[in-house]
Amino acid sequence: MKKRLDPGLIMLLVMIGFGTLPLFVRRIALSSPELALCRAVIAAALLGLYLLATGQRIPFRAIRREAPLVILSGALMGVNWILLFQAYRYTTVSAATLSYYFAPVLVTAACPVIFHERLTKKQILCFVMSTVGLLLISDLTGLGGGSRDGLGLLFGFGAAVLYATVILLNKFIKNVEGIHRTFLQFLAAIAILVPYVAASGGLHLGVLDAAGWASLLTVGAIHTGVAYCLYFSALRHLTGQRTAILSYADPLVACLLSVTVLGEAMSPRQVLGGALILGFTLWNEL
Fold first, then answer.
1. Is the Cα torsion angle 120, 121, 126, 128 positive or negative in sign?
2. How far apart are CA 92 and CA 155, in angstroms?
3. pLDDT, tens digit, 9 for 90 and up, residues 100-143
4. Which end of the chain is more exposed for a tag (fewer CB within 10 A), N or C?
């Protein structure tokens, strides 16, 4: 009898993989828009092959009403990648990751306005304390002074805003399966990124050395294509609470690698800020 891998283990491995993404991004000598475009193209090609190999067809007639939302969310996802990659280049991986992880807090704050959901006292407390955590990560300086770290944190927060918007848009998409939705979102990201990259100087793949090519293929194929396939296959078998807990492997691994591998320092204030964001966001999910 064929034994299937535990979905929780698959999700944990995916999140650990997501946490290693910044290490590879740092090795790719492309601009953030170029990197975002290459990531989308490689991932879309891999997902397209996966859909063909498994005989899955996208029911375009059934999803035509929700297609504009899928396209919009995909376009925003592409811009979100640009801002996240910029954050990695301007500030430490830990600061960029933790500011980006403010997205779930923004979703919680937006739901009462958009979906008329009532915020509980616990949710309000989690939002306030996570916001305090974000301010502590910025060391309360540099955000308005134009410093590299300040710009990096603004890029990370901007990416968080766009990612939160993508999450909210996806709540309105009811009739498009996860894998089909992701494939179409990748195509939409490509459609928005191609003219942007062309207008800003085009692709410069010739600047990549062997390590750069290996890192680019890893980011596109493994961190995006394979990871998304595994993510959606595991997600169907996990409760929301278990998924939320396992997702914390992503920022924790990223912060750990930032300090141990890249040698990037975190001040005690930033450590406290990261703990507030992750701790109160997790408490809110539970």
1. positive
2. 12
3. 888 888 887 888 888 887 878 888 888 888 888 877 887 644 44
4. N
